[in-house]
């Protein structure tokens, strides 16, 4: 497999090898790709979770289980205040 890199990327890879952290450019690229795929997988799971939560919320609204915006705002403020108090932070209104 051949990969074309910009001069900037080549320079940065060469710096990592020169630092002694990696034995070769291939090692740098393997590590970079492992990290990329780990992040990409995590983002994919987060997006799936978000889509599932949105679907659940739409289902609740369709069933008439939604709450008025003012009530949602009040509940959110209460939850935030409770978290701050649990962490020992100042309570805000």
TrEMBL record:
Gene3D superfamilies membership: Antitoxin ParD1-like (6.10.10.120)
Disordered: annotated segments: 63-93
Biological process per Gene Ontology, one example term: regulation of DNA-templated transcription
Keywords in alphabetical order: Toxin-antitoxin system
InterPro entries: ParD, ParD_sf, Ribbon_hlx_hlx
Highest taxon above the source species: Bacteria
Family statement drawn from the similarity comment of this UniProt entry: Belongs to the ParD antitoxin family.
Listed name of the protein: Transcriptional regulator, CopG/Arc/MetJ family
Taxonomy of the source species: Bacteria, Pseudomonadati, Pseudomonadota, Alphaproteobacteria, Rhodospirillales
